Amino acid sequence: MSGPDILQHEEYVMRLISGREYTRQQICVKLRRRGVSENDALAIVDRLENAGLIDDSRYAVLFASSRDEWGVARIRAELVRRGVPFEIAKSEVPLDEESDLHKALDLLEGWRDSATPEKIRGRLVRRGFSSGVVRRAMEQSGL
Predict the structure, then answer these.
(1) Which of 16, 17, 67, 118 has the smallest number of Cβ neighbours within 10 A?
(2) 120-128: long-range contacts at Cβ-Cβ below 8 A with a sequence spacing of 24 or more?
(3) What is the DSSP secondary structure assignment for residue 143, as one 8-state letter?
(4) How far apart are alpha carbons 123 and 143 in whole angstroms?
(5) How many C-beta atoms surround the C-beta of residue 74 within 10 A?
(6) What is the model's pLDDT at position 2?
(7) Fold of 1-54
(8) What is the pTM of this model?
(9) Which residue from 67, 73, 68 is spatially nearest to 90, judged by alpha carbons?
(10) How far apart are CA 79 and CA 101, in angstroms?
(11) C-alpha to C-alpha distance for 110 and 16, rounded to whole angstroms
(12) Consecutive sets of 10 residues in the chain, 143 residues long: mean pLDDT of each?
C-alpha cells in the first residue's frame, strides 16, 4: 500500500480513537474490514501504539472501572475477547476477593426481594464472581 493510502487509514484510526479507547485487535479488525492488508494494519497500529495513542493496558483499566457490577473473572474474560492479552488483563485487573465480595453483596441486596436464592446465586456466577465469593456473599446475607 502506498504512503498516501497509509496516511488515509491512519487518519481514519485517529478519528476512531478520538471518540473512545480501542484495543490493538479492535483497530486491526476495523482496518482489515476496510481492505487494509494485515501487515499494513499492524504497521499502523504499531506506530500509534508507540506514540501512546493505542494502549491495551489503559483500555483494560478504563473498561474495568466502568463494570461495577461484574466480577474479576468476567471482566478479564471480556477483555481477552476484545483482544487484550491475558497477561495484561490479569495485571491490570488484579484479583481482589474483598472488592468482589462487596460488589456481590450490593447486587444481592438489590435482588433479595425479587429472586430466589438459587436465582441470585446464578446471577452472581454469570456476572463473573468466583464460587468462593458467591458462597461468602450468600452466607453473609443469610441466604
Answers:
(1) 118
(2) 124/71, 126/74, 127/69, 127/70, 127/71, 127/74, 128/70, 128/71, 128/72, 128/73, 128/74, 128/75, 128/77
(3) -
(4) 14
(5) 16
(6) 53
(7) Arc Repressor Mutant, subunit A (1.10.10)
(8) 0.84
(9) 73
(10) 21
(11) 37
(12) 75 94 97 94 95 96 94 96 97 91 93 91 94 95 86
CB burial readout 5-41, b (16+ within 10 A) else e: eeeebbebbeebeeeebbbbbbbbebbeeeebeeebb
Q: Are 92 and 60 in contact (CB under 8 A)?
A: yes
pLDDT in the model for residue 3: 61
What cell was used for 28?
Answer: 486491526
Cα–Cα distance measured from residue 47 to residue 82, given in angstroms and rounded to the nearest whole number: 20
Cβ-count burial 119-133 (b if 16+ within 10 Å, e if not): ebbebbbebbbbeeb
Please report the pLDDT score of residue 85 as a whole number. Answer: 97
Distance from C-alpha of 20 to C-alpha of 22, rounded to nearest angstrom: 7
- From residue 86, alpha-carbon distances to 13, 38, 54, 115, 133 in Å are 24, 22, 17, 34, 22
Which helix H or strand E contains 50, and what residues bound it? helix 38-50
- Spell out the domain ranges in the chain: 1-54, 56-95, 97-141
